[in-house]
Write a structure and sequence with these properties.
alpha+beta; four-stranded antiparallel sheet; three-stranded antiparallel sheet; 6 helices; 20% strand; globular
Length: 203
């Protein structure tokens, strides 16, 4: 499996920070291991020495992946290293919304999620607050229309959710992937300073 953009640079730190301390500080910002994840899943791309030599950034990039066994769930629900080349068939945009709902703990409350993917029309529909909604999206082969993230961020704002959807401002570093982050907006700047990845709101 390819490395998915995990880096080994030193970021903001010049000394080791124990993995346990990193996890504790990230958990204070809302980033805990998922229900299906174990401590060993953190060594997906590197060992303890590598994660402690380049603290926080490498750990966050790892926690944004999925576990490599069933049920292949996120290592951390609120982090997602999203590959834009992911739209292959019907159901793929529905999966994106399901993942976003997982990231936010279902705060929007989408139900009856359906989609259609093709040159004859690409869309995703759902019910929220008893109202049926449909988003028409661009069809570009296997490539995801990133507008879906901005539309979901708009739902978060409309619902008055206490969480915001952000993306790492260093997305050029990851090629066709982007780091998506859900957190309390008041934690966005502390996250950027701690991890060395400034965040920008998805809009």
């Amino acid at each position: 499996r390819r490395r998915n953009g995990v880096t080994n640079n030193m970021g903001w730190f010049s000394k080791k920070v124990t993995l346990e301390a990193q996890l504790k500080n990230l958990e204070a910002l809302g980033f805990a291991l998922g229900d299906d994840a174990t401590f060993d899943d953190l060594f997906l791309f590197g060992d303890r020495e590598a994660l402690e030599a380049a603290p926080y950034k490498s750990l966050v990039e790892t926690m944004a992946q999925t576990i490599e066994r069933e049920p292949e769930s996120p290592i951390c629900d609120r982090l997602w290293m999203c590959d834009f080349e992911r739209i292959e068939d019907h159901g793929d945009y529905a999966d994106v919304l399901v993942r976003l709902e997982r990231m936010t703990g279902g705060v929007v409350g989408l139900s009856e999620i359906q989609d259609h993917v093709g040159e004859d029309g690409t869309w995703v529909s759902f019910v929220v607050d008893g109202q049926s909604m449909r988003w028409d999206l661009a069809f570009d082969g296997d490539w995801l229309d990133p507008r879906v993230f901005a539309l979901y961020a708009g739902l978060l704002e409309r619902e008055g959710a206490p969480l915001g959807l952000y993306m790492g401002s260093n997305h050029e570093e990851y090629g066709q992937e982007v780091l998506l982050v859900v957190l309390d907006p008041s934690f966005a700047k502390p996250f950027g300073k701690l991890v060395g990845i400034p965040l920008q709101p998805v809009a």
